[in-house]
Write a structure and sequence with these properties.
Layout lengths: L2 H39 L17 H106 L9
Helix pairs in contact: 1-2
Amino acid sequence: MSSIEQEISRLEQETSRLNKLLDRTRSTYISLNKQYQDQCSMSPLLPSAAPPLPYSPSPSLIVTSEKYRDELRQREEQIRTLRESAALQEVKALKYMKEHENYEARILQLEADLSIAQQAHEQLNEQKHENMLLKETIDRMRFDMDEMRNVVVTGIDVTIHCRISPPFNHQPR
């Protein structure tokens, strides 16, 4: 598995985790909000003769509520940051995948160029071999021609020498 695929897999897992965290945070928020609304709507039970007093939440309830709101804001900020990070990682992954595809295409082009160069090299070697054979043939023909010239010149010398000098067996009369 390539590093890009691993990175994508990791980002998908992170996104899944963040979505679950977001769902839990939403449900906690809804639950807390419902509890808060229930507590705000309830009034203390007083004798029926006395008029109902407006409900005022206790200071500890206000502090707890503010604490939960702050926690919720922090989680929402964390989720936003993580989503931005996941989006950035996705952009990077796409960039790396494109780059990878470009490199693969370049490798294929270089392999094709190498194949062409190897074929040209083989043809050049064949031509060199043929040229060497032709050179050997030419050298052999030159040698043969030189031999023929030597035979002809030697033959002329022998013929001239024979006409000029008396034969060895020849005795004067």
